[in-house]
Amino acid sequence: MKTNFVAEMTWRGMLHDVMPGTEEQLLKEPTAAYIGFDPTADSLHIGSLVQIVILMHYQRAGHIPIALVGGATGMIGDPSGKSAERNLLDEEALAKNVAGIKEQLSRFLDFSENSENKAELVNNYDWMKDFSFIEFARDIGKHITVNYMMAKDSVKKRLSSESTVGMSFTEFTYQLFQGYDFLHLYREKNCLLQLGGSDQWGNITTGTELVRRVAGGKAFAMTSPLLTKADGTKFGKTEGGNVWLDKNRTSPYKFYQYWVNATDEDAENFIKIFTFLSQEEISELVLKHNEAPHLRLLQKTLAEHVTKMVHGQEDLDNAIKASQVLFSKTFKNDISQLDEATFLDVFEGVSQTEISKAKLEEGLDMIAALSAETNFLKSNGEARRALKANSVAVNKEKVTEAYTLTTDDIINDNYVILNVGKKNTYILKVS
After folding, report:
1. Among candidates 236, 255, 354, which has minimal Cα distance to 310?
2. What are phi and psi of 227, to 5 degrees?
3. Bridge pairing between strands 191-197 and 220-224
4. Please, are residues 401 and 367 in contact by the beta-carbon 8 Å criterion?
5. Could you give the C-alpha distances from 155 to 16, 40, 167, in angstroms and in order?
6. Are 334 and 243 in contact (CB under 8 A)?
7. Which of 227, 284, 359, 363 yields a CA-CA distance of 20 to 30 A from 179?
8. Is a pLDDT exceeding 70 seen at residue 308?
9. What is the pLDDT of residues 364-410, one digit of tens each?
10. What is the tens place of the pLDDT at every residue in 72-88?
C-alpha cells in the first residue's frame, strides 16, 4: 500500500473505533470500503466533509473507495444520535437530493476509468427498490435477533425512560437496511470495510454480523470521532445555520470566513482533519503560528486549503480578495470587482438605507447624506461635528462638509459606502 491508512487516521485524530484485523487487511491488499451519505438535502454540509476527506485519504492510500448515497435508507431516516423521528421525504425530493449529492461527491474522488483504484458511486435504492417486505423479513430479518437490535445504543437511548418519544418500527429497522447495504456490497463489490462516524458503530457492526451469518464472510468496521469545537458548540453551524458545500447555499466568501474565524485550538485540530498536509508540515505551521498568533497563519492556511478543495482556485482567490477589500488601499476599485452576492456577504448586517438615484444625479450634500436623508446620525449637528473631526469617509476615502455625493460614488451599480469613525459603516442602496 502507498500509506498505512489506519496510522494516517490515528495521527490526524480521525480514529475512534476499529475492528481487530482491519489494519492487517488494509496492509495486505487494496481493499474496497464504503461510507454512506444521507440525502436529507440536495447538498452536503461541512459535517459530511469529514467523511469525504476520509474517503479521499483512503483512495490516496491505494484502496478502493465507494461512496453510497442512501436513496432507500433516506426514506426511513437514521435514528443514530437523533432524539426524535424526522420528517420523511417524498420520492421526488429524495431524487433531487440524491442527484445533488452525487454531483458533489464526484468533485472529490477519482472516478476515472484509467485509475488503478477508481472510486465508485452507488445508490442503495437500486438494489432495495424491488425487495418486498416479505422477502426482506424472510431473507434478512431472520438472521438478526430482536435482542441484538435492542442492544444497540441508537435503540437503547430512544427506548430509555429518559426518552419521551420512543421509536417507530420504521426507525427500528434502519440498522437492518444499512446492514443489508454492507452485505450487498460485500457480495457484489467485494467490499470488506465500512467507514463512518462513531455514532454509526452499531449500524456498521450489524452489517459485519450479516456478512458473517448470511455469507459466511469476514468484514471490518472503522469509525471516526464526531467532530466538536473546543468550546463545545456544534461544528459546522453558524448563527445563519449550516455551512454548506453548495456555493448557492453558502458563498465561497462565507465558507472561507468560517475557517479563518476558527480559534487557535480548533484550527490546530481542523488542519489535521481537513487538509492533506503532512505531519511535519503541520508541526512547522503550528510552531510558526505560535510565534506570531496575531497573523493567524494556521487559520489562513486551513481556510485556503479547504476552500480550494471544495470550490476551486478561482473562488478561493475571490474569497481572499473579498476578505481583504475592507483594508485595501484601492478600496473602490477592488470592491467594484466583487459580484453583488459577495459584496452583500462582506457587508452582511451593516445598516442600509435606500436612496433614489435622482438625488445623487442632482448632488447630495454630506450633512443630508448622514442625517436627514438616511438617519444614520441623529441630527445635522452630529453630522457636522463628525465631518469637522475628519472622521467621515465615502467609499473609504475621507471627505469634508464641502463634499457632494454624486453618481460617480456608486459602486457595484447600486451602493455607496459611508463610514463614520473606524467602527461605524453604513450602506446607501441606490434605487
Report:
1. 255
2. -80, 130
3. parallel
4. yes
5. 20, 21, 8
6. no
7. 227
8. yes
9. 999 999 998 888 999 999 999 999 999 999 999 999 999 999 999 99
10. 877 666 556 554 554 56
For 221-250, what is each residue's pLDDT tens digit?
999 999 988 888 778 877 678 899 999 999
For 352-363, write each residue's pLDDT tens digit.
899 999 999 999
Q: Sign of torsion, CA 401 407 408 414?
A: positive
Give me the pLDDT at residue 387, please: 94
The CA radius of gyration of the chain, in Å to the nearest whole number, is: 27
Q: Within 13 A of 276's CA, how many CA atoms are on the CB side?
A: 15
Residue 355 to residue 332: CA distance in whole angstroms: 20
What the block records as the C-alpha cell of 301 is 492556511
Please state the length of the chain.
431
Cell output for 104: 458533489
Q: How far is CA 400 from CA 342, 389, 409, 429, in A?
A: 30, 9, 15, 21
Contact present, 426 and 376 (Cβ < 8 Å): yes
Instruction: Label residue 382 exposed, middle or buried (CB < 10 Å: 0-12, 13-18, 19+).
Output: middle
